[in-house]
Amino acid sequence: MHDIQIKRVSILPLGLVNAHLIHDSKKAILVDAGLPGSERHVAKALSDIGLNYNDIKLIVITHAHVDHAGNAATLKTLSGAPIVAHADDLPYYRREKPMTFCATGWFGKLFIKTGLMFEPYTPFEPDILLTHGETLDLSSYGFNGSVVHTPGHTQGSLSVLLDNKSALVGDLIASGILLGGIMFTGRAKQPPFEDDPQAVGNALLKLADSGHTTFYMGHGGPLPAKEVCRHAHHLKNS
Questions:
Q1: Alpha-carbon distance 215 to 17, whole Å?
Q2: What is the pLDDT of residue 190?
Q3: pLDDT at residue 1 above 80?
Q4: Mind listing the domains of the chain with CATH numbers?
Q5: What is the pLDDT of residue 86?
């Protein structure tokens, strides 16, 4: 369980949409599955580090938005890896009801009108379903860390916390312009949609207070804890 590294999987270029591989020289955990049909980007990222689909031991879906969960069913078939997700987003993974989106600003309101966030994806049933307060120890998958519930972006948002003090937080935070990425990626901001900013602020501060120093995210990043805390305090005071 040594030499853990984190590799960005560029689902879209310039940090617009990211998945991540937590890996060593023999195995990996995939954090988020990307958009439908984007498996070639995961394959390339795996190839870059000398791995393949069979080396994925677990797929973590941080939340049910299409750019994070949209290709989960395909990647599960390709890798044979189990999927872990949270029960509060289960109706969306099953495609039993459409998601709702709380825009955080003008770009979110404009983005909703494009309909891209409502793109359908193949439903799937998580193999490991966490409920409130539950965590998943990653040691049985070969890595020191855990998957924890961090609601706020959606009710079922998850984060992956590693013992090396890295945190992979999905869309709890973003950086860059518009959707995220491209430019100014060292400055934290809200993603285009966020269900509960106060809950997000609380979650981010809790992670920073517990000693996590580097935050990886779905749009832009990574960011140091100091910038994450600045943003989290802004959320709590707004």
A1: 15
A2: 96
A3: no
A4: 5-237 (3.60.15.10)
A5: 98
Q: Which of 52-56, 116-120, 198-202 has the lowest average pLDDT?
A: 116-120
CB count in 10 Å sphere of residue 3:
8
Answer whether 8's CB lies under 8 Å from 20's CB. yes
Per-residue model confidence (pLDDT) at position 2: 57
End-to-end CA distance of the chain: 41
Rounded to the nearest 5°, which phi and psi values hold at 204? -65, -40
Q: pLDDT tens across 121-159, in order?
A: 999 999 999 998 899 999 999 999 999 999 999 999 999
Q: How far is CA 170 from CA 2, 68, 69, 70, 140, in A?
A: 24, 8, 11, 14, 22
Q: Would you give the DSSP letter of residue 139? A: G
Percent of the chain that is helix, strand, coil (3-state, to 5) = 30, 25, 45
Nearest by Cα to 68 from 216, 219, 197: 219
- 96 CB-near residues (< 8 Å, 6+ apart): none
223-224/214-216 β-pairing? antiparallel
- Alpha-carbon distance of 192 to 147, in angstroms, equals 24
d(CA 198, CA 177): 22
Instruction: Tell me the H-state helices in 10-134.
Output: 39-48, 66-69, 72-79, 90-93, 106-114
